[in-house]
């Protein structure tokens, strides 16, 4: 598995924490910034990560901003992206099993690095269940194909 990861200025600490997790899990990653302490615009980071997932350059994406909300809204504009905003371990597992989410978004002003690490670990290691969920995820893809 290869993962693209990015944050804005509001998510740098959790991004560092998740990079150390990816290294511990021996997961290849592409760190796509940001590289600054000054204020940046989250779409400039969310969209390139989402594009990499959508075009198959990487398997998954992880995005962090202050709330995780802006990153998730932006990422979900890219066709083929199912970005889940997650701040608890139950949802981390459920969104992989049920939604086959391919991008994870978290907010550093919402949760701390320890919980973010556990969420990312579950999200990275939980398999999609398919079955009845595939019908539902398929309906989202159908809509996307018909309206884009
Ligand atoms: C930046 O101030 C903040 O708006 C951003 O990190 C994020 O929370 C947006 O949704």
TrEMBL record:
InterPro entries hit by this protein = RpiB, RpiB_LacA_LacB, RpiB_LacA_LacB_sf, SPI_LacAB/RpiB
Q: Which parts pass through the membrane?
A: none
Q: What is its EC number?
A: 5.3.1.6
Which UniProt keywords are listed?
Answer: Isomerase
Highest taxon of source: Bacteria
For this UniProt entry, the molecular function terms from Gene Ontology, in alphabetical order, are: ribose-5-phosphate isomerase activity
Look at the named UniProt entry and state the broad enzyme category this protein falls under: isomerase
The record's listing under Pfam families reads: LacAB_rpiB
Family per similarity comment: Belongs to the LacAB/RpiB family.
Q: What is this protein called?
A: Ribose 5-phosphate isomerase B
Q: Which organism is it from?
A: Metabacillus bambusae
**Encoding gene, per UniProt annotation:** rpiB
């Amino acid at each position: 598995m290869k993962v693209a990861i990015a944050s804005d200025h509001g998510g740098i600490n959790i991004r560092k924490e998740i990079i150390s997790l990816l290294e511990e899990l021996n997961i290849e990653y592409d760190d796509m910034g940001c590289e600054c302490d000054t204020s940046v615009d989250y779409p400039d980071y969310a969209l390139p990560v989402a594009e990499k997932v959508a075009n198959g350059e990487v398997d998954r994406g992880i995005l962090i901003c202050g709330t995780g909300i802006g990153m998730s809204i932006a990422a979900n504009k890219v066709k083929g992206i199912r970005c889940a905003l997650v701040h608890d371990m139950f949802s981390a597992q459920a969104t992989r099993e049920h939604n086959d989410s391919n991008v994870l978004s978290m907010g550093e002003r919402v949760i701390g690095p320890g919980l973010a690490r556990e969420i990312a670990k579950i999200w990275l290691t939980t398999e999609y269940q398919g079955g009845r969920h595939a019908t539902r995820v398929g309906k989202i893809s159908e809509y996307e194909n018909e309206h884009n």
